[in-house]
């Protein structure tokens, strides 16, 4: 039987999965051989410029940011009725697009359906929704990629919904295991929740408690330099880090818009080809950026020419889709150029092994200049083409390993950076570099504003910090103050399927001795079971070091 490598942790190789993977492989081959230009095909096959969601190349866009009313309309519903209808609409939507669905102001959206229900009653209904969202309703072998942004609605009903979201996720499934979806994102805003005297500060404190136990929610910084000039109710996270704000054809908003398509550049392969010359490396990046732009424009035109958007027009879920003109609607979307392996590339160029963050500091200005060049080029592409280009700090769940595996037998043969089995995401400090959260956040924080297509900073902790919520707060607020756009905290989250014990479990459960353990870790923005990680991410997981701050 033909075996296909897992590309995402959020997939199941059931009967539908096998058929879907076989169909995807056939469709990718058709697109590469019959539609994609030869130069773009070679760049993809040689792992220089990866075209994400290739099977959807001329079929659909990637992701979208919406309000609940975009799916439910203005009909009156009870809260329970709205939740049931919303689940059905999410299933319908997730199967007509390639990527994630981000509800950008979920608590405000759902507050209109709240009457006299208690928080406990709302919790029960939302927990049922979470159960539904964790079934394999997408293609029959995946869970829907859904994100609920919340936290800046100060009405009584909105606050109830926010608290119910946290409680429902905290309860988990029947065994107490955390739900993988939806991804919950708490929107930090000084005037609404971050300040001690703000109206939702108490909900922020509850969110911190939830994070300390389940790694969820993550935190979106509405006050970062890239976000502060936009209406906080109209921006947020969709997918694992995608951010859509600026628009040539409308206001700063992520609503009814999303990423149409994206590519990820392999900076490490360019470093191998640069022969230890930084200027040559930058010239290779410039060339790859230009080719990526052309690749995305070609894909955009193919999508406009061949895709059937009748469902989009019927649902009117995309900005200007009521005019039933694909070009008019999707010019509002973004074309994102992502990158991976900044610090792995500099390690190659300078023949340095990064052991501690201090080893990297001398090259920080150089690293910033490289990303700044990439951002300048995307800004130029906007003016040149009249399209909403953006620079993405790629999640690279699949390509982190596939890039390294390819390079290990080609451009990077016999190079330790390739042979470790993965490349580090975007501008991130490599996972095996010794540092603490203060140094890491300060180091990465300066790159966030350059990556207007989305970015995140993670902090890795050794143990679940459920007894030290103040430590979680210190990390989140330090990242907030250092201009990080999006912030997450990682730690081992093991669950015994027999007795329900939660914590770090080395092998067998310390309470009942069972070896039936579910091990959850974060992979590229969402939680996943370790045994479902793709190969590259499994290698990366083994190398992760903790960022707990050393005692003075």
* Helix/strand structural class: alpha/beta
Question: Which term fits the overall shape?
Answer: globular
- The number of strands is 15
Mean pLDDT: 92
Name the poorly predicted regions.
none
Rounded to an integer in angstroms, the radius of gyration calculated over CA atoms is: 22 Å
Helical residues, percent: 40-55%
Fold and architecture overview:
The strands form three sheets. The chain has a seven-stranded mixed beta sheet. A four-stranded mixed beta sheet has the order 1-7-8-9, with helices on both faces. It has a four-stranded antiparallel beta sheet with strand order 13-12-14-15, with no helix packed on it. The longest helix has 29 residues, at 278-306. β4, α7 (156-171) and β5 form a beta-alpha-beta unit. The chain contains 21 helices and 15 strands. With 552 residues, the chain is α/β, with parallel strands linked by helices. The protein has helices at 15-34, 38-45, 69-72, 79-94, 106-111, 119-133, 156-171, 190-194, 201-214, 267-273, 278-306, 310-315, 326-330, 342-349, 357-361, 364-385, 399-407, 416-419, 437-445, 469-481, 535-543, and strands spanning 49-51, 64-66, 101-103, 146-150, 183-188, 218-221, 259-266, 334-340, 388-393, 457-460, 486-490, 493-496, 502-503, 517-523, 526-529.
Descriptors for this entry?
21 helices, seven-stranded mixed β-sheet, 42% helix, four-stranded mixed β-sheet, alpha/beta
Quick summary:
With 552 residues, the chain is α/β, with parallel strands linked by helices. It is 42% helix and 13% strand. A seven-stranded mixed β-sheet has the order 2-3-4-5-6-11-10. A four-stranded mixed β-sheet has the order 1-7-8-9, sandwiched between helices. The protein has a four-stranded antiparallel β-sheet with strand order 13-12-14-15, with no helix packed on it.
């Amino acid at each position: 039987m033909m075996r296909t490598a897992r590309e995402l942790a959020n997939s199941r190789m059931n009967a539908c999965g096998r058929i879907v993977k076989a169909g995807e492989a056939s469709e990718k081959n058709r697109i590469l051989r019959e539609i994609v230009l030869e130069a773009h095909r070679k760049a993809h096959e040689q792992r220089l410029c990866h075209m994400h969601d290739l099977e959807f190349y001329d079929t659909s866009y990637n992701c979208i940011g919406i309000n609940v009313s975009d799916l439910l309309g203005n009909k009156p519903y009870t809260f329970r009725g709205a939740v049931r209808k919303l689940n059905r609409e999410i299933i319908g939507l997730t199967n007509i697009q390639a990527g994630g669905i981000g509800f950008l102001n979920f608590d405000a959206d759902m507050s209109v359906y709240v009457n006299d229900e208690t928080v406990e009653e709302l919790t029960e209904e939302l927990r049922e929704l979470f159960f539904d969202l964790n079934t394999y309703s997408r293609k029959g072998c995946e869970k829907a990629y859904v994100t609920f942004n919340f936290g800046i609605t100060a009405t009584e009903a909105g606050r109830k919904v926010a608290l119910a979201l946290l409680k429902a996720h905290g309860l988990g499934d029947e065994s107490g295991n955390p739900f993988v979806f939806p991804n919950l994102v708490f929107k930090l805003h000084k005037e609404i929740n971050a300040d001690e005297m703000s109206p939702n500060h108490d909900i922020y404190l509850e969110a911190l408690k939830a994070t300390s136990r389940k790694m969820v929610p993550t935190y979106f910084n509405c006050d970062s330099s890239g976000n502060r000039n936009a209406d906080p109710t109209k921006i947020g996270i969709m997918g694992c880090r995608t951010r859509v704000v600026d628009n040539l054809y409308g206001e700063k908003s992520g609503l009814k818009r999303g990423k149409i398509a994206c590519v990820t550049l392999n900076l490490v392969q360019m470093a191998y080809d640069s022969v230890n010359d930084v200027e040559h490396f930058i010239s290779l990046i410039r060339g790859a950026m230009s080719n990526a732009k052309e690749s995305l424009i070609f894909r955009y035109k193919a999508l406009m020419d061949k895709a059937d958007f009748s469902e989009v027009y019927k649902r009117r879920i995309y900005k200007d889709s009521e005019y039933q003109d694909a070009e008019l609607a999707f010019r509002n979307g973004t074309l994102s150029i992502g990158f991976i392996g900044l610090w792995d590339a500099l390690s190659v160029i300078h023949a340095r092994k990064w052991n501690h963050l201090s080893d990297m500091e001398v090259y920080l200005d150089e690293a910033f200049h490289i990303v700044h060049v990439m951002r300048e080029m995307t800004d130029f592409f906007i003016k040149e083409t009249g399209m909403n280009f953006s620079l993405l700090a790629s999640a690279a769940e699949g390509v982190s390993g596939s890039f390294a595996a390819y390079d290990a037998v080609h451009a990077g043969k016999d190079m330790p950076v390739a042979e470790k089995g993965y490349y580090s995401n975007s501008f991130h400090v490599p996972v095996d570099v010794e540092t603490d959260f203060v140094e890491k956040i300060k180091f990465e924080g300066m790159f966030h504003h350059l990556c207007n297509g989305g970015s995140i900073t993670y902090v890795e902790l050794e143990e679940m910090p459920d007894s030290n919520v103040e430590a979680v707060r210190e990390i989140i607020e330090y990242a907030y103050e250092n201009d990080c756009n999006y912030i997450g905290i990682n730690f081992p989250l093991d669950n015994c399927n027999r007795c329900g014990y939660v914590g770090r479990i080395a092998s067998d459960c310390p309470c009942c001795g069972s070896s039936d353990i579910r091990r959850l870790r974060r992979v590229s923005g969402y939680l996943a079971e370790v045994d479902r990680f793709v190969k590259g991410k499994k290698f990366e997981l083994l190398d992760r070091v903790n960022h707990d701050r050393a005692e003075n």
